[in-house]
Amino acid sequence: MHKRTTNQEEAMPIVVVGSRNPVKVAAVQAAFAKLGDAWEVRAVDAPSGVSPQPIGHAETRRGARNRAQAALAAYPNAEFGVGLEGGVFEYDGEWYTGAWCAIVDRDGRVGWAGGGLILLPPAVVEGLRAGHELGTLMDRLSDEHNTKQKMGAIGLLTNGLVGRQETYEHLVLRALARWRRPEWFESEEEAG
Ligand SMILES: O=P(O)(O)OP(=O)(O)OP(=O)(O)OC[C@H]1O[C@@H](n2cnc3c(O)ncnc32)[C@H](O)[C@@H]1O
């Protein structure tokens, strides 16, 4: 993995998450821990610039990129900014929740990954149509508090089989593809 060399050769490289949601921060920590080098993970409140409950890929993806860029801008010494944005998606009358991840570096590259879709039940769909946020609806349905910062809709819906954190960790790992295989993403000129 490419690392920027600085005159502080010993300093750990920094990755900044554009959210203080502990689920998102833990997902980035777990993903970067797999890279082999020790990374320092910081978290900042970064505006998504989209609605509190993004609907559809375009809006959700934009929110992820805005958060990643704001995160990177907040830390001049950081190598990467990571944005994770949850959204809801409608296909053929069924509604799903999923997410997009954007990772940005100092050279303007953006790595993308999205998905992790899971079917939402009718009571939640009704609430979404009425303009409510998924987090609020999941709290109401499960009679729990702040579930979006715990197992999330994914954990509640699968009754603990898989959680929001693991799902987001996978998105971060996939969004790193362009730095794992730079030769496949960049022309020789750019890569040089
Ligand atoms: O603190 P931030 O980073 O804003 O985290 P968030 O969970 O509130 O915000 P997102 O922008 O990622 O998600 C947009 C909305 O979708 C909801 N959401 C997305 N994924 C969810 C999940 O797995 N469980 C519960 N709510 C979820 C949540 O209510 C958010 O208001």
Automatic annotation (TrEMBL):
**Keywords in UniProt for this one?**
Hydrolase, Magnesium, Manganese, Metal-binding, Nucleotide metabolism, Nucleotide-binding
Superkingdom to which the source organism belongs? Bacteria
What detail does the entry give on cofactor binding?
Binds 1 divalent metal cation per subunit; can use either Mg(2+) or Mn(2+).
Non-canonical purine NTP phosphatase/PRRC1 domain: from which residue to which, for each copy? 18-179
Per its UniProt entry, what is the enzyme's top EC class, as one word? hydrolase
| Pfam families assigned to the protein according to its UniProt record, in alphabetical order | NTPase_I-T (PF01931)
EC code: 3.6.1.73
What name goes with this protein?
Probable inosine/xanthosine triphosphatase
